[in-house]
Amino acid sequence: MIQRHYSQSIQIGKVTIGGDAPIVVQSMTKTDTRDAAATIEQIRRLEECGCELVRVAVPDLKAAQSIAEIKKGINIPLVADIHFDYRLALASLEHGADALRLNPGNLRDPEHIAAVVQAAKERQTPIRIGVNAGSMPPDEGCQSSAISSTTGIVSRMVEAAMAQIRLLESLDFNLIKVSLKAFDVPTTVEAYRAIASRIPYPLHLGITESGLTLPGSIRSAIGLGILLSEGIGDTIRVSLTDTPEKEVFAAYEILKSLNLREHGPTLVSCPTCGRCEIDLISLAKKVGERLQGVSKPIKVAVMGCVVNGPGEAREADVGIAGGKGKGALFRKGKVVRTLPEEELLSALMSEIEDL
Amino acid sequence: MIQRHYSQSIQIGKVTIGGDAPIVVQSMTKTDTRDAAATIEQIRRLEECGCELVRVAVPDLKAAQSIAEIKKGINIPLVADIHFDYRLALASLEHGADALRLNPGNLRDPEHIAAVVQAAKERQTPIRIGVNAGSMPPDEGCQSSAISSTTGIVSRMVEAAMAQIRLLESLDFNLIKVSLKAFDVPTTVEAYRAIASRIPYPLHLGITESGLTLPGSIRSAIGLGILLSEGIGDTIRVSLTDTPEKEVFAAYEILKSLNLREHGPTLVSCPTCGRCEIDLISLAKKVGERLQGVSKPIKVAVMGCVVNGPGEAREADVGIAGGKGKGALFRKGKVVRTLPEEELLSALMSEIEDL
Questions:
Q1: If you write DSSP's letter for every residue of B137-171 in order, what string do you get?
Q2: A208/B contact by beta carbon, under 8 A
């Protein structure tokens, strides 16, 4: 359904980003990078829940050196996140980073960038030009009155990225990925639309500082959802003030909602209403918890009433619908068995195992 | 920024839907409608958290009669949700419902619809034609092979709505609102886009059976976010397998993300990374809890580091940024005070009270 915007693919370790490759889910560690053991443990948990690429902060030389140790313990490619000091980028490359993220807002000296590009080119290591609306290069134009308007911010974000893209291209380097993140959703959407029409490089989508789990997921889902539905975006990171595993969960829910990726089961469940005669919310939560152990990309429904529940959830592979003291087990919208309420959950789970 | 799609406004009680009116947030009760006291209590909680319109299920005559009692205890307009039996619509009108929702999938007899329209017209009570992809009228066309495709489902949904719209128009009734809900996000988006170009009536947006809190909010945010960003939609209901208060919270977060409504504080908080030296996730959660008691539409930031935190969150009215053992309090991106970590939360809250 969605016509993907053209981008030329890059390779980060074994992961392809852009072109026809599936949209890649990534996250960032929240451990102290210098603590290799803790960072490896967090990345392994991320791998288990489907994270395909991981970024680590590199605030000092010890963190850059730690990359070599971390790489030994993990299976997904690692991106070093660099701000302020280009020497940390050089050290990260030396210690095996599979890609770099450079912030053009605080890494601007052309000679420093050239040194990093030279080292990255020798290793064929991609660089993400990661613009953040909150840490942009100083505005040197004469249109400073436009800064506070969305249009002004969008054009400054795009120009910050374009300036660094042109610099990398002038150094004959094109293993480029770009991001233009803001907290404001319309600003972020406009910025990505603008850059997508100007460059052939893959785009990394995200909303910065989007907040706590639920509001942050909603904010990210809208911004990333609008862009992905227009075919824009090759890899996504949902930033949440929560565990990185939750970020990966939210990222896959976004991709699944647009039928862009399959990932584990999807739960269809009704909001309940005055028609419902069972404790549906508790039952659905229990099913949700049990499904965390299931990896098959199946659709499971938990519906409040037998009258239209199975019909309304007919796209589900298997489901249950509540009644008065008893309920129904259904497959593809057809009731196959009626059973007491207390047996519904276990009947559903054994049905799922049989699929 | 967003150019609103034209719709002619309707009035449900004191609430205007469509035209230039703000996008209305609604929810549905999950109590037994026949239990007026429990339903009133739930609606009052909904009113407190900003719900502007509430729907109740009317599965039988006793539920319809209960509307009169419920109406006495609430301040927002009430919509009666009708399936299967047109007499429940008549009884709901008689007992004071401010609007009706009719499902064209299970209420089809033109004479029955005419009787309801006649009664609604006498009271100038609006009717929502509420199509649900899972409970559509039988497909009588010869293109049944197309049913399973998205295009087929979309055109069946639109046709089901259009048939009933034409019937109401032929009865000289135009106090109409329309919804076309599905679980599949691209299907829902396509259906609303198609109907928006064909009718002048306000649209009620929703994704059906979208599931548990987090995945359901993500799914709803994408579907509703895409449509709202195109100017489509006059009222929204987020359906979650959770309390109706959570539905209202999610609805406002969607509208706030697109700058379509203001509603209480917005928390900007960073995801934390290897640069962070305080327990930011716990701190942000505590701030989030404390903000539940604040009604001012302010932006509050909780950032992991002093180095770029205040700058990255410069659009926040007030914020805190962590350091090593101590942190900073900032306003509009400028640090105004440095203080010990354990005093950050209370300093932030007193700053918020001063705003």
A1: PP--SS-GGGTTSHHHHHHHHHHHHHHHHHHHHHT
A2: yes
Return the closest-CA partner of residue B115 out of B171, B44, B198: B171
Q: A215 and A188 in contact (C-beta within 8 Å)?
A: no
**Direct distance between the N- and C-terminal alpha carbons of chain A, in angstroms, rounded to an integer:** 27
Tokens of B42: 């739930």
Query: Does B231 touch chain A if contact means CB atoms closer than 8 Å?
Result: no
* Pairwise CB contact (< 8 Å): A229 & B226: yes
Radius of gyration, CA atoms only, chain B = 23
Q: Which residues pair with A32 in a beta bridge?
A: none
Name the helix (H) or strand (E) containing A64: helix A61-72
Residue burial A80-104, b: 16+ Cβ < 10 Å; e: rest:
bbbbebbebbbbbbebbbbbbbbbb
- Find chain B residues with C-beta within 8 A of A132's C-beta: 312
Q: How far does chain B reach from its first CA to its final CA, in angstroms? A: 27
B223 shares contact with chain A (CB less than 8 Å): yes
Q: Residues A285-342: pLDDT tens digits? A: 999 999 988 999 999 999 988 777 888 888 899 999 988 878 899 998 899 999 998 8
10 Å CB burial of residue B21 (0-12, 13-18, 19+) is: middle
Q: What is the pLDDT of residues A237-257, one digit of tens each?
A: 999 999 999 999 999 999 999
**pLDDT tens track for A89-144:** 999 999 999 999 999 999 999 999 999 999 999 999 999 999 999 888 887 654 44
Percentage of chain A exceeding pLDDT 90: 85
Select the residue from B78, B101, B222, B280 to test the A interface by mutation, using most A Cβ atoms within 10 A.
B222
CA dihedral of residues B248, B250, B255, B261 (deg, nearest 10): 40
Contact by Cβ (8 Å): B279, B327 = no
**Cα separation values, A199 from A5, A195, A237, B169, Å:** 11, 6, 21, 50
Residue B157's pLDDT is 96
Rounded CA separation A116/A168 (Å)? 10
Please tell me which of the candidates A56, A257, A312 has its beta carbon nearest to residue B132. Answer: A312
Token couple for A103: 């912030």
Indicate the SS3 state at residue B71.
Answer: helix
Distance between A174 CA and the closest CA of chain B, angstroms: 28
- Is the confidence at residue B24, as pLDDT, over 70? yes
Cα separation, A133 vs A156, in Å, equals: 9
